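[step 3/7] inverse_fold.run input=structure_tokens len=282
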């Protein structure tokens, strides 16, 4: 009987997960950035933020009040990784060629996995690079994430984060989060943001720490609970450089004046492109 209940529970969970992960938004057309240029310039430990078009992406963006719903860590190519131990583990989770640029991410329904960067070729993304991260700590951050491969996704954290971000006065007491309880959460589970935040925290690299100035006017940092991190925090962090690779290089101050514009049409975002005459008539 117990086994039957487990099978039914797993089946229902799979159906719900597939429904949440299904893309409902349109695929972006003619992205303004060059994905190939992004791939050429990526470095290990770059954080890739993804807009996301799935149902769960819309939920996460609503909860976090952010443009970004997902974060992944660029780890480079298997053939370039020095540690034979890490290479062997990566090959257990990725069966493709060793020269493929890879990301590690935590995804609902799959857990912590390794995927090709090309997975996000047709998505809106942003590259966040940790400023001044040295080689030793860079290797440690990569090792931390590789060692987490196979962990399951922590759906509970999303619920906790939702309750934390809503005004407490409007939430029933029994719904209030156990976020700050000692050893709260399951150490065998991870979300995309927490996985990466834990990795950088392991080498004491700041993302969005609390800052305290003591009586001697010296600055002390207080680490932030990594369960509170969202993808947008890497965008907001002053310790990560935001890298953009536009299709049109406007380094020449006058180049933008040479771009070809259509003056007879206006883009209404997801409503599509409309002729100015049509808009004026409505």
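[step 3/7] decode complete -> sequence:
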């Amino acid at each position: 009987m117990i086994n039957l209940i487990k099978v039914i529970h797993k089946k229902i969970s799979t159906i719900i997960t597939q429904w949440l992960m299904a893309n409902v938004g349109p695929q972006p057309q003619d992205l303004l950035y060059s994905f190939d240029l992004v791939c050429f310039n990526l470095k290990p430990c770059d954080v890739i933020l993804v807009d996301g078009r799935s149902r769960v992406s819309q939920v996460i963006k609503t909860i976090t009040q952010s443009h970004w719903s997902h974060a992944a860590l660029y780890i480079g190519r298997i053939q370039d990784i020095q540690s034979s131990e890490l290479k062997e583990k990566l090959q257990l989770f990725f069966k493709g060629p060793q020269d493929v640029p890879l990301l590690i991410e935590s995804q609902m329904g799959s857990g912590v996995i390794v995927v090709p960067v090309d997975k996000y070729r047709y998505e809106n993304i942003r590259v966040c690079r940790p400023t001044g991260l040295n080689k030793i700590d860079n290797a440690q951050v990569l090792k931390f994430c590789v060692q987490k491969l196979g962990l399951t996704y922590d759906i509970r954290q999303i619920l906790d984060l939702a309750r934390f971000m809503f005004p407490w006065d409007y939430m029933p007491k029994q719904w209030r989060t156990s976020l700050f309880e000692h050893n709260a959460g399951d150490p065998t589970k991870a979300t995309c943001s927490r996985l990466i935040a834990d990795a950088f925290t392991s080498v004491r690299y700041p993302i969005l720490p609390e800052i305290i100035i003591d009586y001697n006017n010296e600055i002390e940092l207080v680490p932030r609970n990594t369960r509170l991190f969202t993808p947008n925090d890497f965008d907001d962090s002053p310790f990560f450089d935001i890298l953009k690779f536009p299709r049109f290089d406007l380094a020449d101050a006058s180049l933008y004046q040479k771009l070809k514009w259509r003056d007879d049409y206006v883009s209404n975002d997801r409503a599509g492109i409309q002729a100015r005459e049509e808009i004026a008539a409505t």
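[step 4/7] annotate
Residues 1 and 92 are 34 Å apart (CA to CA).
The first strand starts at residue 47 and ends at 50.
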